[in-house]
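Long-time lurker, finally posting.

We've been working with MFS transporter (Trinickia symbiotica) and I want a structural starting point before designing mutants. I don't trust myself to interpret raw outputs, so I'm hoping someone here can both generate the structure tokens and explain anything notable. Sequence follows.
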Amino acid sequence: MLQALRRQATLEQRPSLIVSAAVLGVLYAGSPLVTPLYPLYQRSFGLSELTITLVYASYVIGNLSALFLFGRVSDGAGRRPVSLAVLAVAIVSTLLFLLATHPAWLFVARAASGLAIGVGAATATAWIAELHPSADKAAASRLAAAVNLAGLAGGAVIAGLLAQFVPWPLRTVYVVYLAVLIATAVLTALSRETIKQRIHSAAELSIEPRIGVPPERRTAFIAPAVTAFATFALLGFYAALLPNLLGDSMHMHSPALSGAIVAELFAASAITVIVTPMLAAHVAMFAGLWLLPPSLALLLWAQIAGSVTLLVVATALCGVSTALGFRGSLQEANRIAPAERRAELLSAYLLCCYTGNSLPAVGVALLSRSVGHLWANVTFAAVSVVLAFIALAVGARHVHRTT
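Top reply, 14 upvotes:
Generated this for you. Predicted structure of MFS transporter:
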């Protein structure tokens, strides 16, 4: 069926652009889909907080596989075929979640989700850039960033509402997402291909890992790399540990509230990206870093006070901080990358993002077993603040040298 649809692809450039953006948004919507469901999985399968955090972190295994092995595959195989392939992987991941009867299924499903999103994000982002009518590629980048964050926000809030208000939440959420994935795949099969010279056999694919930072760029790379790690550590904290923070510190066991708070984080990030297009890369990065300490302080205050109102305020500030930190550090990494080694340096940057998204959350879960949630979170905040000041110091020195 899909082969027939491919042969009859009729969508013009603008509808194809909308579909490519939908692929990106729908894939990213699957990432936080499971966050409001973690407490339900804990009760259903008798899982500890650490096990749930490890399930979350297994997502990064898929991300890293995408980064090291399949990140550039669509350059040769084509945007449309690879988008269809990653949507198929996302469908398999969703079916694993839907049919899960043992915790092992969750690990495999989460890793498959990470693989689909890792490959799909690179593919759809490139597809958007190639289909965008503007010659200014920054406009395409802003569209991709906004769709990315909107997908994350939408996935979190819809999953939370379904988990709170419909029967069989561990099934219904995935049935709805499965229908969206299938519809997106059908539209993708009808969309315009932008790679004119494609490979014709798997043997021609290049999956050799390319990652590294040229020696002359390593000092300049420190600030964006550390910023990326700290920024994604905060995102990982929310995605993996927020339901437990709400339940243990605020006695709020509501999937809808959990999903809404995560959605608020990404919505604040999306709005920040949209309204700050003229901000220079290093200014955005430094602003994100300076906002990180007060964001974390408010988050801890909300936990100590057991206040959802404070948590809402802290989350909005965290969203602004992470958006500025991510956008600024990514643009700065792009700026310092030599053209002939851009892919290698950006792969190193993404490695910092992915490890930051998982390792600190696992560390907090491990530490909380011995010192409790509050002191584990205090430690997380302290380390994050130290990293922010390191990035600020190194980044300011580099900016001073280059001006």
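Before you design anything, note these points.
The two ends are 58 Å apart (CA to CA).
Residues 218-250 form the longest helix (33 residues).
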